[in-house]
């Protein structure tokens, strides 16, 4: 394939790359360019998203740069989700960061650069491309975690994320070196062909190490140890970004590696995925029960939800992957909505409120905010008729169709544990005595975006099922 065709296929990444360079120049020339750069960054993300949507509509399925990069329906769908999540994270950030004294033009540029890395991740068809995308995303994320320089918690979060992220990268690289050593190639397709027969101990170790490194990136148990501390310490707009866009990218990357590179050895990886899924569901649910900090609670919620997502991967079928993508789309709306509600919890001194005690009796003092927060909590718990119920339903149905009835039953039973801490939040808002710790929010952007996402995960979301099912089926089909 010639260079011009390859460049055409990587158009979303080119848009974001050139935009980030231009935005860096604007940031250097203008002192207070934070909001302007944020607006232009959102425009760049929208442009990249529209390009990805065009690829999806056209049914593009081709490789670029001699097989290092793949543009297909799966990557296009994942990129659309990533760019939407990143754009929303940028829209809600400026006012909150300004009140913290942390709003600088570098913030949106780092988010755009992270989006470039995430786009490369979901289009990777080679171990080298995988690692380049992963590190580009991770390096931007380490800086974002410690972006509030005057906050000790933020600095601590960035340091923890960096140290543990470096450890995970080492594990991943070791696994990749084993795969290359025993197959003679870094291409997913060639690795898949080499693993079609009986695999030896070396290849098995490589598979385990690669899955372990990727499990860290999606914060799946038992590789979740960084998540609560980083989510709590990072500025809340950054945490909202971490919980949405990078989660989609890492999950999509795990899907592609598992299906394309390891697909012929389902017996080898399905057991690992099932164990990790159940551990994530249980640890995420049990770990959240005693949390008094809402950001830590949502961190354990993300671990819990990853467990449900992995049930779809464990099925190893086209239906299972399609169900995962449906769940991912709904999860992005739910988790962004939850963090938007959290960002509106501000005291009279302007300080962010994060404690469970701070939302006591919130329904009496801020009824609309409490109602929106309750919608997101009920939806995350998978309680019908909210849209979060549909995400869990399709994942469990895919597992049952794949003959994994015990896994689905255990997952359904464990989801009851998770419902406890979501209901605890609702109970605190609606049945406890008012703490009157939250002042009226003056951020209309948060109010409108939170309201729009609440409607999206309400029963109105069911109207999107036909379109969402068709698109996710097309995306899943590209892998098979």
UniProtKB/TrEMBL annotation:
Membership in a protein family: Belongs to the complex I subunit 2 family.
Subcellular location: Cell membrane; Endomembrane system; Membrane
NCBIfam families: NDH_I_N (TIGR01770), PRK05777.1-3 (NF004440)
Short name of any one Pfam family annotated for the protein: Proton_antipo_M
Entries under InterPro entries matching the protein: NADH-Q_OxRdtase_suN/2, ND/Mrp_TM
Protein name: NADH-quinone oxidoreductase subunit N
Role: NDH-1 shuttles electrons from NADH, via FMN and iron-sulfur (Fe-S) centers, to quinones in the respiratory chain. The immediate electron acceptor for the enzyme in this species is believed to be ubiquinone. Couples the redox reaction to proton translocation (for every two electrons transferred, four hydrogen ions are translocated across the cytoplasmic membrane), and thus conserves the redox energy in a proton gradient.
Protein topology in the membrane: Multi-pass membrane protein
Keywords tagged on the record: Cell membrane, Membrane, NAD, Quinone, Translocase, Transmembrane, Transmembrane helix, Transport, Ubiquinone
Assembly and interaction partners: NDH-1 is composed of 14 different subunits. Subunits NuoA, H, J, K, L, M, N constitute the membrane sector of the complex.
EC main group: translocase
EC numbers, comma separated: 7.1.1.-
Catalysed reactions, semicolon-separated: a quinone + NADH + 5 H(+)(in) = a quinol + NAD(+) + 4 H(+)(out)
Superkingdom: Bacteria
GN (gene name): nuoN
